[in-house]
Amino acid sequence: VVKYPQAVEPLWHEWDRKAQKCGLRHTFYAVNGDQYTGEWLDNLKHGKGTQLWKRTRAIYSGDWKFGKRDGYGSYSIPDPVTKEYKKVYNGWWKNDKKCGYGEMFYPGGERYEGEWSEGLRSGWGRMYYRDGFIYEGQWLEDQPHGQGMLRLANENRYEGGWKDGKKHGPGKFFYLDKGQLLEGVWAADIPKCGILIDFRRDEAPAPTQYPIPKV
């Protein structure tokens, strides 16, 4: 019987195992200049950590799972003029995309707070627009869709159905400045049919000259 010597594991295998980032906090510099400081698991970002992208100077700080943003975290970018960091998104992530409840800050002071799915506004949410409008209701793939209310800057409001970001289906439009109410059916933002009646006309700041006669 010929006995062969037992294979000896090369030293570089042991060195490689020791170099694997796992559990402890490490700082890693990518070839493109990106930087990550945080926890690792099996050589992947996993746990708490902060990522800095060199090209955009954007920063994400929060939870990671197997190399992707997953859990709770915030994403910030530097102001192009002051260079000070301003928060863009603060909330939950899944598989590197916004998912769950979160708050998004847009240029010009617009803001959204509510639910997300696959990086898009989906579910219930409230959007504050720069013109003073506020939409509160259901969303689907970044558009108002379902039931919701849009309040205008002058306090007039629409309550009813939405589809693809437009008024669609049964709804009510309250013209509180004139003291009137339009109840009807909308299609692609246009009222197709309905009934216009006086509504709190005595409280309206600019009521119509004559009341609407009752049928």
From TrEMBL:
Its main location: cytoplasm. GO terms for cellular component: acrosomal vesicle. It comes from the Eukaryota. It is found in: Cytoplasmic vesicle, Secretory vesicle, Acrosome. It holds the Pfam family MORN. Keywords: Cytoplasmic vesicle, Repeat. InterPro entries: MORN (IPR003409), MORN3 (IPR052472). PANTHER family: MORN REPEAT-CONTAINING PROTEIN 3 (PTHR46511). Assembles a suppression complex (suppresome) by tethering SIRT1 and MDM2 to regulate composite modifications of p53/TP53. Confers both deacetylation-mediated functional inactivation, by SIRT1, and ubiquitination-dependent degradation, by MDM2, of p53/TP53, promoting a proliferative and cell survival behaviors. May play a role in the regulation of spermatogenesis. This is MORN repeat-containing protein 3. It comes from Baryphthengus martii.
